[in-house]
Design goal:
The complex is a heterotrimer of chains A (224), B (311) and C (134).
Chain A: H1 3-16, H2 18-35, H3 40-71, H4 74-79, H5 85-117, H6 129-150, H7 153-176, H8 178-184, H9 193-219
Helix pairs in contact in A: 1-5, 2-3, 2-5, 3-5, 3-6, 3-7, 5-6, 5-9, 6-7, 6-9
Chain B: E1 17-27, E2 32-41, E3 45-49, H1 56-63, E4 71-76, E5 79-80, E6 92-96, H2 107-117, H3 123-132, H4 146-158, E7 164-168, H5 176-190, E8 196-200, H6 204-210, E9 213-218, E10 221-227, H7 228-234, E11 236-241, E12 254-260, E13 263-268, H8 273-281, E14 285-291, H9 294-308
Parallel strand pairs in B: 3-8, 3-9, 6-7, 7-8
Antiparallel strand pairs in B: 1-2, 1-4, 4-5, 9-10, 11-13, 11-14, 12-13
Chain C: H1 2-5, H2 19-33, H3 45-52, H4 56-68, E1 72-75, E2 79-82, H5 88-111, H6 115-133
Antiparallel strand pairs in C: 1-2
Helix pairs in contact in C: 2-4, 2-5, 3-4
The chains are: A mainly alpha (224), B alpha/beta (311), C mainly alpha (134).
Chain lengths: 224, 311, 134
């Protein structure tokens, strides 16, 4: 594993996606801002926008940085450089994840801080946020693995749509849980076990998908 | 029919092997590379000719470690090559005409990218090449013509002064001026006897001109491989006059190419002086014995190979 | 620049003769005419190959044959020079003339032209060429 090479590949992709990163970051902040406005309609719109930004950014970044390199034939150029498949895989997965995390963490941080800072906001509302955001993150890593294995935009979109449907079901079920719905309306933040369990499952999915993505990427020994 | 490349290169005075494939096999759905044996000696320009789909690109990708063979060994600079290893690529420059650069970025950005990965990058030479190729480093790849793009990619290869250049049809689609510029720079590599080139092309004229050894490939098999001169020495086109009853003697390597009234045109791949005597003894009158160009040898070789194995 | 040094040799794709023969013939011509006096250093095999954009093996062969014919000599480790042979220039001139005449005579024999007829034709052509030479 050549850390110098991984770093160069990582920075290269970061540079190539700089304009989109900036756009997504901007959109993320705007959406999060809307979600924190003390107006029910605007908050609702803000949340929808945040989910949209997360899903769109995920899909776009996977398409551009990962799938695009094969279709654009630039992967051949990169692999003619002194980098191994493992270097390429780690660098690629790392940068796709990082670029996603930028708007993701911006939104998470913004909304999270608002629940504690904005006067009149209920601190308990924070209880659902990690679970929702980590769901988005693990759904993203799932799409990532599917993209690496299938090398197909079509399949990745299918999985994305599936995750989207699951997200809505998840949100429904989450707020239907008595502990969650109770805490989110209160001023005190406590962590029910069920939320911690959900977070651990999401964490596990996240780690597994990342490792599988790197594994499958490394197994692609034939460039043609 | 596989001809091994053995001590043919001793005459060039260079013995270490820059790269080699031994008994390499690779299967795809509709194509198979069968027991390829192929070597490039240091300090030589090795030419690879074959029809489209013959396996030239596959062989080059295998040498680069971009494709894993199903069987056989691949060695570059006397070390086995694999995808887990990247150090060999520090000394190799690879060009394929289906390779692409990042469209939104400039030539200068690509130069800086390659420079960051190659300690052997020669910035002074890179700048010279920009001038000789008529490129500007601020040019965006998207706006480059085909020829400019090829030259830009070759610049990225040449400027890091690789010990081995693997070039998959570099002059395809280049206008004569661009081709001249490219060949001039490529041949500079030849001045250094520690550096080697593997060059594949459809253009037999290029191969004929610059290559020390020539390997023919068709349908995944090495049909013939030899020193350039030895190759052409052995081939002749023979024009005869003979009557309709005349049948060419069954000599190995002799093939009747065309018949027109009394004219018979034959080609032979192992010409010796007594062959003409034998032909005359068989009742034909020799009109002319001519050397063949590499292109004609190539077409004839491939046709013969296909006749022997029509699959 | 390295190119101009060797611009006196021109390889032509239009010429049907093998590349190494073209190199040999041009070196011989230059020596015969006096452009390359005895002792002139010739470029190394690899330098010339790079400059002319032909394979090393071609130049190697050309140099080998030129050495065999005594036109150049190779010093161990120091490259090749035009042979220090007195009379090399005139003998090469003579050889070239002889080669051309040989070709003409061979063709004449093939076409069944007699010796007297050949001599007559040579005289005729010589007369015709004279005014143009002036």
């Amino acid at each position: 594993m050549n850390f110098a090479a991984i770093r160069i590949l990582f920075l290269k992709d970061l540079y190539l996606s700089r304009r989109y990163l900036f756009a997504y970051l901007l959109a993320a902040v705007v959406a999060a801002g809307l979600a924190c406005v003390p107006n029910e309609t605007l908050t609702f719109i803000g949340f929808i926008l945040m989910l949209t930004v997360a899903i769109a950014a995920g899909m776009h970044l996977i398409g551009m940085l990962l799938l695009g390199e094969s279709t654009d034939q630039t992967k051949l150029f990169v692999m003619s450089m002194p980098v191994s498949l493992l270097d390429y895989a780690i660098g690629k997965i790392a940068v796709v994840l990082t670029t996603y995390l930028i708007p993701w963490s911006a939104m998470f941080a913004f909304v999270g801080i608002c629940t504690f800072v904005v006067p009149g906001a209920k601190q308990g509302a924070f209880v659902a946020l990690p679970a929702i955001f980590c769901f988005l993150l693990s759904a993203f890593t799932l799409q990532l693995v599917v993209a690496v294995v299938s090398e197909s935009v079509g399949w990745t979109i299918c999985v994305m749509v599936g995750c989207n449907v699951c997200l809505n079901l998840f949100l429904m079920k989450l707020f239907a849980l008595p502990e969650v719905s109770a805490i989110s309306k209160s001023d005190v933040l406590t962590w029910p076990t069920v939320v911690l369990q959900i977070l651990s499952i999401e964490g596990l999915v996240f780690v597994c998908c990342l490792l599988l993505a790197i594994l499958f990427q490394t197994r692609k020994r034939d460039l043609v | 029919m596989t001809v091994q490349l053995d001590r043919t290169i001793d005459s060039l005075g260079a013995s270490p092997c820059a790269a080699s494939l031994s008994d390499v096999c690779k299967s795809y759905k509709h194509f198979e590379l069968k027991r390829v044996n192929f070597a490039i000696q240091c300090g030589t320009v090795a030419g690879l000719i074959g029809p489209n789909g013959a396996g030239k690109s596959t062989i080059m990708r295998i040498l680069m470690g971009l494709v894993q063979p199903d069987a056989g060994t691949v060695r570059v600079f006397d070390k086995p090559i694999s995808s887990s290893q990247s150090t060999a690529k520090l000394e190799i420059g690879y060009f394929a005409d289906d390779m692409r650069l990042y469209k939104p970025e400039s030539i200068g950005w690509h130069m800086q990218f390659v420079r960051s990965l190659y300690p052997t990058w020669d910035e002074v030479y890179a700048r010279q090449l920009l001038g000789r190729f008529g490129l500007i480093d601020q040019q965006i790849v998207k706006g480059l013509s085909h020829g400019q793009r090829v030259k830009a990619m070759l610049l990225l290869v040449l400027a890091r002064r690789p010990k081995l250049l693997i070039l998959d049809e570099p002059t395809n689609g280049l206008d004569p001026v661009a081709k001249h510029e490219v060949l001039t720079e490529l041949m500079q590599v030849v001045e250094d006897e520690t550096r080697s080139i593997l060059y594949s092309s459809h253009n037999t004229q290029d191969i004929d001109q610059i290559c020390d050894t020539i390997t023919f490939i068709d349908r995944g098999e090495v049909i013939a491989s030899n020193n350039r001169d030895d190759f052409l020495q052995q081939w002749r086109r023979i024009k005869l006059q003979a009557d309709t009853a005349w049948v060419p003697p069954a000599l190995p390597g002799l093939r009747l190419d065309a018949t027109f009234r009394s004219l018979r045109v034959l080609s032979v791949n192992c010409f010796t002086d007594d062959l003409s005597e034998r032909l005359q003894a068989s009742g034909a009158v020799i009109e002319a014995i001519e050397p063949m160009t590499l292109e004609e040898v190539f077409v004839s070789t491939v046709m013969r190979g296909r006749e022997e194995q029509p699959s | 620049m390295y190119m101009s040094m060797h611009s006196w040799i021109v390889i032509s794709q239009a010429d049907p003769r093998p590349l190494y023969l073209q190199v040999i013939e041009q070196v011989r011509r230059r020596v015969a005419v006096g452009d390359l006096p005895p002792g002139t250093e010739l470029p190394s095999i690899r330098e010339l190959a790079a400059a002319l954009k032909v394979s090393v093996i071609t130049i190697k062969r050309a140099y080998m044959e030129l050495e065999r014919d005594g036109v150049i000599s190779t010093r161990q480790g120091k490259g090749s020079v035009v042979a220090e042979e007195p009379g090399l220039q005139s003998s090469l001139q003579g050889e070239e003339m002889r080669d051309h005449l040989q070709q003409a005579v061979s063709l004449g024999l093939l076409l069944g032209i007699s010796k007297t007829e050949m001599q007559r034709r040579i005289s005729e052509i010589y007369e015709q060429s004279q005014p143009r030479a002036k």
